[in-house]
Design goal:
By secondary structure, the protein is α+β, with helices and mostly antiparallel strands. It has five helices and six strands. This is Endonuclease/exonuclease/phosphatase domain-containing protein.
Length: 191
């Protein structure tokens, strides 16, 4: 069961026309957003999701890359390596790659050598849009990802219900006084 607050961050990374330094700066901004504290989230656990176009190809993960997943499209590129390292640092999982995608080899016009691992080699297309989620959500997600630049993820979350605490007398008194002042000011402005 997932409890606490949900923080969703939507991103669009710099394209390959930008330098790697700009990409690192972008990831620093994402890291700041992930680590930002709000008054509500500081009291309870915050579950994090980062979705968007990362302009990186992470390909298929291997045993050491537990955060990448075994069903990626294409192969790693430099930005993909940077993103994979970012996922390891932040403990976020690339959920697109944890689900097997349908592949129709007849449509691809690619000759697959018999000795090649079809799981990683099979697709000439690639994915640059990803859903990165924290470990708490990893087991409760299922995805439907079929096209380039389009990722749809469905989450089945069960949020814990907390009973509402009664307001304390001091807060109630402040609210009543503020309401009285607002009404008095409205009357003065009306006249």
């Amino acid at each position: 069961m997932v409890s606490g607050y949900l923080r969703v961050i939507q991103v669009y990374a710099p394209t390959t026309a930008h330098t790697d330094d700009e990409y690192y700066e972008f990831l620093d901004h994402v890291m700041e957003a992930l680590n930002a504290r709000s008054s509500a989230s500081s009291r309870k656990k915050c579950t994090k999701i980062v979705i968007g176009d990362f302009n990186a190809m992470v390909g298929c993960g291997n045993a050491e890359e537990q955060y990448i997943g075994p069903y990626g499209l294409g192969v790693h590129n430099q930005r993909g390596n940077i993103l994979a390292h970012f996922c390891c640092e932040t403990h976020l999982h690339v959920m697109n790659n944890h689900f097997q995608k349908k592949t129709n080899f007849e449509e691809m016009d690619v000759d697959l050598p018999k000795y090649e691992d079809k799981k990683c080699y099979r697709l000439s297309r690639s994915t640059v849009g990803f859903s990165l989620v924290s470990k708490a959500l990893r087991e409760s997600l299922e995805a439907n990802i079929e096209r380039k630049h389009l990722s749809r993820t469905t989450s089945h979350l069960q949020w814990k219900k907390y009973p509402k605490s009664p307001p304390n007398e001091q807060d109630l008194h402040k609210t009543v006084e503020a309401t009285k002042k607002e009404r008095w000011n409205d009357c003065k402005n009306f006249c």
